[in-house]
Design a protein that fits this description.
Number of helices: 9
Structural class: alpha/beta
Shape: globular
Number of domains: 1
CATH superfamily: Ureohydrolase domain
Radius of gyration: 17 Å
């Protein structure tokens, strides 16, 4: 199956700069061997980015505008029956890509697996930093944050069909949101104690229940920052490079059930000796190879 890569270069969802440049670098690297279509999105250079941690709605309008264009482009490209791979950019771009998958599938038929050290389940009321990237998963699930999905006129992805894998740092009020929403979550400790294969197997069992396609979002902050320092908000005690690559391999064993894949939060300004860049490229190579062998086609509803 052909793929299309969408470079979503935005760092408006975090107060840290640099994630907007990550997709630019990865796309540049990919062009040496990638033969399918690449579409690049860059945040408006005229936008004056807010970095004020006391501002709970930092760059809200600009993010919604960026995501609307990304969302519409994904829907238009997938009419051609291609497999979309979105490269971020901070996690706010995943609101567009995941809801595009939900729109394609329609009728509550979509699941999601969110691989990240952060649950990203805050709301405008509960957020401490005002970083909209930290509201992404709750917005995708329709748990408040409706302002972040004005561009989307379809169903959200139900929490019962959603799984967060690898979380290891949640705020108290964010944890309350997760409990109230009954979101399924595995911590990094769960991965290490239960085993990668078991966790991913269980995650797909949940996300594929009464669904006809699963959206996967893989955030590079799942790795320990000693392994992959090039992320906007790192969390220690993460996965090793070998564990992260194995995790992705286990995910891609289910490629026939996956309808789209995001690799997000490569911050090239924070990388050291291109360590994170190389890991990101290795992960993308795995995804592209798996997608090229993919035979299943999804019904598209617009």
């Amino acid at each position: 199956m052909k793929t299309v890569i969408l470079g979503a270069g935005s760092d408006l969802g975090v107060h840290i700069d640099g994630a907007s440049l990550g997709p630019v670098q990865l796309v540049k690297d990919l062009k040496s061997f990638y033969k399918d279509e690449i579409i690049e999105f860059k945040q408006d250079e005229n936008v004056i980015k807010s970095r004020n941690l006391s501002d709970r709605r930092k760059n809200e309008y600009e993010i919604e505008k960026f995501n609307e264009e990304l969302y519409k482009t994904i829907l238009e490209k997938t009419k051609e029956d291609v497999f979309p791979i979105t490269i971020g950019g901070d996690k706010s771009v995943a609101v567009a890509s995941a809801l595009a998958s939900a729109k394609r599938n329609g009728n509550d038929n979509t699941g999601i697996i969110w691989i990240s050290s952060h649950a990203d389940y805050n709301t405008f009321d509960s957020t401490i930093t005002g970083n909209i990237a930290g509201l992404s998963m709750s917005a995708i699930n329709g748990y408040k944050n409706h302002e972040l999905r004005y561009f989307h006129d379809g169903n959200v992805i139900q929490t019962a069909k959603s799984v967060i894998v690898g979380t290891r740092n949640t705020d108290d009020r964010e944890s309350e949101n997760m409990r109230y929403a009954s979101i399924n979550a595995y911590t990094t400790e769960d991965i290490k104690s239960k085993g990668i294969e078991t966790v991913i197997k269980e995650a797909f069992e949940i996300a594929s229940r009464k669904t006809s396609g699963i959206h996967v979002c893989f955030c590079l902050d799942i790795f320990d920052p000693d392994v992959a320092p090039g992320v906007s908000i790192p969390e220690f005690e993460g996965l090793t490079e070998e564990e992260g690559m194995t995790l992705n391999q286990e995910i891609l064993k289910h490629i026939e059930d996956i309808m789209a894949y995001d690799l997000i939060d490569f911050n090239s300004l924070r990388d050291e000796n291109r360590k994170t860049e190389q890991i990101a490229l290795n992960l993308l190579a795995q995804v592209i190879n798996a997608a090229n062998k993919k035979g299943k086609h999804f019904d598209k509803i617009y």
